[in-house]
Amino acid sequence: GGTIGIIGGGQLGRMLALAAAPLGYRVHVFDPHERPCAADVAADFTSAAFDDVAALERFAASCDVVTYEFENLPVGPLATIADKLRPGTASLAIAQDRCAEKAFVEEAGGRPAKWRAIDGPEDIAAAVEALGLPLVLKTRRDGYDGKGQAWLRTEADIAGAWDTLGQRPLVAEQAIRFDAEFSVVVARGADGALAFFDSTRNVHVDGILHRCELPAGDLIEKQVGEARRQAGAIAERLGHVGVLTVEFFACADGPLVNEIAPRVHNSGHWTIEGAATSQFAQHIRAITGLPLGSTALRSQEVTMDNLIGDEIHRWPELAADRQAALHLYGKGAARRGRKMGHVTRLG
Ligand code: ATP
Ligand code: MG
Ligand code: MG
């Protein structure tokens, strides 16, 4: 038993809280919003800003261990509760800055797309010169679900891009012609043990994950071994404790790293029904110092479909489908592009 603190009150925090209960833990959620969806399933909830150091310290004092479900958090304030924090601030600092992330991946022996840091509008033309077109510009910080990205396809797209993306530090990435996308969801225990989940084929539409599928197909299966080596090296180099996700592009010449998430991940939601231990239970085990659970498959065939925006209105039909495991996040307004729930099918 004991109390686990979760910073961030979104659906990942909610599913972590639900997974903590069977292991006997209470959960205390910390989030700036009034009533985030994770607070509904937690014993305690603090509504305060992420940089409110006094509130963070009180929160940490009420918990045995603190984790986060969201990486766009201010590192300085979190450093004040570093003794309770798993994973630590190193994982956070690297994953929240796309340039630091890519440099770190390279040091760890991974291969990102060719990239350039963009600190001003004049750097964009230089990046086009160096990387060629098409390329994608991404805000260095704070992006998720494809937000804060702009594609440059022709020279004419260069001029407006700096303003369109809010005059913020960016990274330019070469466009990758990948054959498929997959991710490695790995847990690293407090003792350094690694446990890998199977890698699904991940299908994105407009930068948002729509579907995960197992079997993932020959190409991904051939590249998973190398991708696991890279993800394991990244987790070790970060001293990461908990679940870590590395997104990959499967290319003709091997896997390229897209990005790192220092947390449970949408592409691991299928593990709730599809694996012996879910990614959420695994994360709770890792951060509390329990042995990692089995990642064995419960079915060779798994699909996970996100319910995005209006798709949530399909819920009555999905609730009646006896092959479907329906998850609704209780998030309120079904805004466009918002992840409202998901549905998993086995076999
Ligand atoms: P997430 O919600 O996964 O954190 P994000 O906003 O950080 O999303 P990315 O993962 O960088 O966005 O990009 C979203 C998707 O856009 C990728 O999964 C991929 O389909 C496409 N994409 C991103 N970068 C590139 C690239 N360099 N070349 C080709 N496609 C790309
Ligand atoms: Mg991302
Ligand atoms: Mg991504």
From TrEMBL:
Name of the featured protein: N5-carboxyaminoimidazole ribonucleotide synthase
UniProt signal peptide: none
EC number: 6.3.4.18
Residues of the ATP-grasp domain: 102-288
One Pfam family of this chain: RS_preATP-grasp-like
Annotated source species: Sphingomonas kaistensis
Keywords: ATP-binding, Ligase, Nucleotide-binding, Purine biosynthesis
Key word Nucleotide-binding present: yes
EC top class named in words: ligase
SUPFAM superfamilies named among the record's database cross-references: Glutathione synthetase ATP-binding domain-like, PreATP-grasp domain, Rudiment single hybrid motif
NCBIfam families named among the record's database cross-references: PRK06019.1-2, PRK06019.1-5, purK
Pathway connected to this protein: Purine metabolism; IMP biosynthesis via de novo pathway; 5-amino-1-(5-phospho-D-ribosyl)imidazole-4-carboxylate from 5-amino-1-(5-phospho-D-ribosyl)imidazole (N5-CAIR route): step 1/2
Residues the entry annotates as binding ATP: 98, 138, 143-149, 173-176, 181, 204, 258-259
Assigned protein family: Belongs to the PurK/PurT family.
